[in-house]
């Protein structure tokens, strides 16, 4: 079976779950052709995926001359399919629902990318097209699949449905199926009018071979709290800093290591200074995966207190939490979105209420004061990931759905 994959910024350090899924499918004997909208911003490529970047076709980077040439060839090869797809394009521009009026005009370059993709799909004999993220990639996939005459599906994650869900009804209706990464997302899409019979839950997962479980280390220094993610509001780093200030006020000995970069870095650093946390918080910026793995081994707890931001955006189920749990690092997070599907409070981790620094600090104190609890939670967390968030198992479930489309 030959499947084409479309995702944004293929090769970026933030989309490792996409590459993991592609690798898992390849291990099942599937031939994968990789496509992407753009290259990773600022060249932030995950070093282990450089070979994947080399084989990926970036649709928005073909250049004007190449694009015009490809469009001409497509028009000569399957003009009737392009004309039929244009009917849906105009219908969607006129009748589709969008967050901003300007989003209607953005369909034109997306349709152009779809024509280019459809030509490659037909030339390469692709039997199915799967896209990750329900916004631009799913839009391109929707039109490209119609022109190529093959079924398509897409995986819906977080921002792409909570904030940027333009044409979501059209996409779910026209797709062979829509993958939701959590039951929470499935309920959310149903609540905004998507037909439930088109929605299937397949969790993202991690490669357990690359996430070996390590026993909790014997602490010889300060209690180490690790947090990894983009420095944006919905990750809740501002809540973590407030919780850290509470720990310091209690006289607790700890260090908080924050890995990541993003638009809120200046604001967060200023908050840490205002809270007199400069000696307790370490800002590491974006790091290679091997460095993050080393930090997991040094951490006594992993914290990610996700929140819903001012635009209504929130995380789905962050894969970095799965990685921490798989590696044996006790996790503390919040009871938001699909996180309770990954972490059972008091069983495989600890959950605090969102935007509640006192509750978050209390969870961290429990891990500090009760090593046996931390050990029990870490053991149960590994079992939970093996059972529900194993990349190989979940890729097989996705492949089964694809095969059911009749390809």
- Structural class assignment: alpha/beta
Number of domains: 2
Annotated CATH topology of the largest domain: Rossmann fold
Number of helices: 18
Characterize the biggest β-sheet: 7 strands, parallel
**Which oligomeric form is depicted?**
single chain
Q: CA-to-CA gap between the ends?
A: 8 Å
Strand order of the main beta sheet, please? 3-2-1-4-5-6-7
Q: What is the strand content? A: 5-15%
Number of strands: 13
| Rg, alpha carbons | 22 Å
Anisotropy-based shape = elongated
Describe the structure.
There is one protein chain. The chain is α/β, with parallel strands linked by helices and 407 residues long. It folds into 2 domains: 2-205 and 390-403, Rossmann fold; 209-388, Rossmann fold (3-Layer(aba) Sandwich). It contains 18 helices and 13 strands. A 7-stranded parallel beta sheet has the order 3-2-1-4-5-6-7, with helices on both faces. β11 (301-304), α14 and β12 (331-334) form a beta-alpha-beta unit. α4 (79-95) packs antiparallel against α7 (136-148), α6 packs across α7 (136-148) and α14 packs across α17. The longest helix is centred in the N-terminal third of the chain and has 18 residues, at 107-124. The mean pLDDT is 92.
Write a short abstract of this structure.
By secondary structure, this protein is α/β, with parallel strands linked by helices. It has helices at 16-27, 50-55, 64-77, 79-95, 102-105, 107-124, 136-148, 159-162, 168-174, 183-191, 237-249, 265-274, 289-298, 319-327, 339-342, 357-369, 371-388, 391-403, and strands spanning 2-7, 31-36, 57-58, 128-132, 152-156, 177-180, 199-201, 223-228, 254-259, 281-285, 301-304, 331-334, 350-352.
